[in-house]
Amino acid sequence: xxxxxxxxxRTLVSPDLPSDYVLNSIFEIEKALLVLxxxxxxxxxxxxxxxxxxxxxxxxxxxxxxxxxxIRRVILETMKQLKPNEKTFRFPSIGKVSRRVAKDSWQIDDxxxxxxxxxxxxxxDRAVQTKEVVNVREIKKVVEEISQFEDVPGVSRVKGTExxxxxxxxxxxxxxxxHAKDVDLExxxxxTAEDL
Length: 196
Hints:
Blueprint: H1 3-13, H2 29-49, H3 54-82, E1 88-91, E2 95-101, E3 105-108, H4 111-121, H5 124-127, H6 136-147, E4 155-158, E5 162-168, H7 172-178, H8 185-189
Antiparallel strand pairs: 1-2, 2-5, 3-4
Helix pairs in contact: 2-3, 2-7
């Protein structure tokens, strides 16, 4: 594997990866997807192993999840900065990356005010359980409907954030094995939480 590709892998798995890091090319996203796949495999493995050693693995899983989120952020920023008008990139035999914006949601700031308001509208039974636990899934729908016509006390709108979705064309391990000449799999497989 070329020194440049090894450097890219080391950069992506580094715990010191700057928050504003952007890949040099859209095509480097393909390598980032392979690293992301390996990290996802590690997370799955540790979650299964966690049944047997719960305490020590929580920290390992958290570190891999943090690295996973960091690489996803790098891919998103690379897409936004290098190809801002493109929403989807396909990498044959590896997968596809699509930018997406999550729907806005509602944050409940004052549950009591909200419940009182819904009661006045005759909607309390629909969105609030009898022990006055707010049914968050349903309350979001109710608040969305009402907020089109009037302000709803006790909530504030939380702006949806942009993220990426990753779809692998084959299982992650198969794709990585197929492209072993492009990415140092020994380097990826030897990753431990300390490396992240």
